[in-house]
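S.,

Sequence below, as promised.
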Amino acid sequence: MPEVIAMQLDISKEEVISIIKDKIRQDQDKGAPTKQASEASIGMFYLDAVVNIDSIIKSSQLEMWKSLKGEMEFNISTEDAQNALAKAAGSKSTFVILYIDIVGSTKLSMTLPADKLAAIVRAFTHEMSIVVSAYGGYVLKYLGDAILAFFVVADKSNLYIPCINAVHCARSMIRAVKEGFNPLLNQEGYPELSVRVGIDVGEVIVVQYGWSVQSFTSNDGRPIITKKAHHDILGYTVSVASKITGIAEPNQVVIGQYVYDALDSEQRGAFTQLSIPSEMWGYVSSKTGDLYNLYARSSS
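The prediction came back faster than expected:
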């Protein structure tokens, strides 16, 4: 929502909406597919014009420092993601899936004390979650040193906006690691971090797995128990995004063919098609049955 981005970037809600509308008009003049301005679904808009990468880098450095000193609070919730999934429970939906993980985390676990490794991963997941939210995405789950996020596709005929937001999100994540985390880690005598990102778009199935149960006491002393359905996603696209991430080089973004096809010509020019041995990659296109092409972009 605009007010969330405004709070994160320390600007007014009106300024957020104004920038988004201006960018939409510019994209329409260029012939890029867009949606009409609406405050209802921020993920439907091109958001790179709103996100302040310098603020993200500064925040990443500060939160890493606080985490290493034991002073950081992890205050990110996945409730928004669960609310978004609840609307599509039991059905097929089209999502852009983004998967990011830390390269060489096993080596880090062997060289760093457990508390310092936990502090680094905690700051990493916290700040990457904020970047995902800033670009209109949702964090579905944390998988150790990795994050699985999704961007809702409101209109299957218009994949451009959610795909471009996910690609820019990945780029900003890598910059936050390289320019925010790593200078501080170097200063404090810790090894630098590298990450890799995989992105794909396609149909997923939203399923319910049990309930989250909460209990509390009312003002008059009565016990109250509430429960909320817990949702997850599964499908071919999730598997592809995970596999893509494993192929990516350190500080590299790799996207699937469908994401590449959704981008404009300028964005496509930043990516190079990968040539991958068949023993490493066997996924096929659901549309053509041919080998599913992958495209890579470095962080530089």
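The chain has one domain: 51-298.

Coffee later?
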